[in-house]
């Protein structure tokens, strides 16, 4: 039997190489599309080419007779399948019934209408082209502000005002502070629709094992357990007869934090054809039919005193919801409201949200989910206020930050910020760029006609959901630690990572607590038949909630290890360290391996102790965690072309204690790339007929290696008191801190030309018009 | 049509439909699932393989066009169980990784001492949505430094 080796040093906090990498760099990881099964068929979905149309008829005869075709299903066949669920609840929320295949009307381009199942993907595709759908096209509306205008085409005929909900929140004396303000600044700020674009598109393999009454469903998802619970309801299947597996998942960014029509549809098909079926989303389908993010038009007003003290904020959000509610669609803008004060003390706030139906694919959680919009808004407004008062943008932030001694800080929006030293990352970032000299350099550059900009943003974010009261699906996470009879350690986590490196960080946590070598630890996830239960990885919660559940499961198992050790050593006075139970009097030891062997052999049990050596812990946090930070971006604008070049990008993030700096830096880099993408290039564009103009990678501009600056990252460390690991979360930080820093920088560059605000994406054309317009 | 080709040092011969894409031939007929399909339009580079010594996007080549060709996929990079210098990759979700490594190998095959700019431009045809490219650029640098030893 192999031995379990002990190790003297701690691993938490070190740049440990990722344990996921060997399978990824050798091309041997198994993603959904890599799964092959005997008798497997391939499904292709027929989708609406119209944004709004009545379906007069569907003729599937030619398709059904096509070579290799086993079955064709339409909405009539799947009518009994339950609706695609919305997990969010808001007062008086209008929830359209979301059939998995369209019934008599389609609501957006890409709306699934029929599914063709054939022996291979090429034949299925051939047959899909033979499905004849007779549409009566209807007027569509793709712009949320146009959708609210009188006489706009109704997305859902039963609700002619296209309004899904109105939401209002208010605190303090808003009217009073605005009436008494020395200065009030106002700005319309948009946060455009974005396409999440995980590199692996969605995909599903479903296998019905009729004799066992068991449906096995493999999906590229962030939430295997929630998906199982909700799909079981949709399909009318007992929950324990449905196994959901999230194999290797090629990125999610929130777009796979959902329950999609196609997941239920493949379950339905497999149960009908009694053969395994595979559906792999094409990139075009991914752009058309997987949720989009953002989609805000925000109207801000900010009241302040002459000295720059912010006294009140008003915000009206017009949220483009798309045609339906996906899992969390209407809840996303409420996160923007929660975070609207940012890092500032402002106690008087008023927020209104109008949730608007459009003939577009639904919006939902995309990296940051409501919080980038809030941060973009407040950080733009603070800069606009600073410009109005002719104050330095760093100075106005220092003036309004919540002070260190005010934590835990109750916000005007009902949150309690856990801990913070908000000035620290900004001070550090200012020092890195040598701010005072940089401003002098800028003054000189301007004299030479150069458009050099310095942009600052500071951000706070809400991470680590729950507690359960804050999350409709349960705000906790679960972990099991199973010490095998050989002493090897298996960790089962309900957090279902998909690129975040939790197989590494969780192994670091377990190795340190148990005092064993990291190679003796295996972290498993993503299979509902294997893992006790779980919520999933999203909202920067994996480590803060899932890691903490693991921490407590490790404490539970350590209690048992000590009990067994004490019995084997014949002593009540023992301690546990370095993978050994030590008798404090005599100094003799029992290793974790000897203890595990005894625990499973079961002949020398401590009193009132069961055999075996494992523990499961479900942990619900008492509060969210609130990471924060400061980003500074130096840009230069080319007067002749409008092109923006980023000369320096400095990100100083405080995500609490850092388990693995290599992984944390990687998360920041990736987040910043998506933030720069939004600031400069990315935008989902629908035309007036609801056709997605940016429907392929050819038209939707994603950041590539040569377009990205070098990111200088730094950290401050303010541990969270919410969990014993002191961690806060970092998955979305880069994205949230980024876009306002970039926009503030470019506005700063153009401020001498009278530019006060620029909406994203800041394309060269838009910038060039601003520059040349100012010359005219 | 019958095609004969060599993949990772092994000869294959199959009767294939003319419209079968090379990526589907490699993944589904030969069973090498390292190269991935990310976009179907030769923009993302997840399907990159080496064909007759050049990195190509196998999602926009027909299998019949690779008749008589010699192909290396990510699975064929390691020699005698030893990973290629480029297989020190800064991965997150890993989906782009096989293509990214094949493109990076070509950068180093052509230029043993690439600058950061040359690395970044060499990776123009490969999209990663997770890393912001920084750890990948570092990995290519490290491989270049290692190969120079």
Report what the structure shows:
The complex is a heterodimer of chains A (776) and B (149). Chain A is α+β, with helices and mostly antiparallel strands and 776 residues long. Chain A is built from 19 helices and 28 strands. In chain A, helix 14 (502-514) links the parallel strand 20 and strand 21 (521-525). The longest helix of chain A has 28 residues, at 542-569. The radius of gyration of chain A is 28 Å and the shape is globular. In chain B, helix 2 crosses helix 4 (134-147). In chain B, strand 3 (48-51) and strand 4 (54-57) form a beta hairpin. The model of chain B has no long low-confidence stretch (mean pLDDT 94). At the A-B interface, helix 1 and helix 17 of A face helix 1, helix 2, helix 3 and helix 4 of B.
Task: Compile the SSE list and pairings.
The complex is a heterodimer of chains A (776) and B (149).
Chain A: H1 21-25, E1 41-47, E2 53-59, H2 61-64, E3 69-74, E4 105-106, E5 112-118, H3 121-128, E6 132-137, H4 144-148, E7 163-171, H5 174-180, E8 183-191, E9 203-209, E10 214-219, H6 224-235, E11 242-245, H7 261-273, E12 277-280, H8 283-289, E13 296-304, E14 310-322, H9 332-338, E15 348-357, H10 371-389, H11 393-400, E16 409-410, E17 416-417, H12 423-433, H13 435-447, E18 451-460, E19 477-483, E20 489-493, H14 502-514, E21 521-525, H15 542-569, E22 574-577, E23 580-583, E24 589-591, H16 592-601, E25 614-619, E26 628-637, E27 644-654, H17 661-681, E28 711-715, H18 733-750, H19 764-775
Chain B: E1 2-7, E2 10-15, H1 22-30, E3 48-51, E4 54-57, E5 70-72, H2 97-110, H3 116-122, H4 134-147
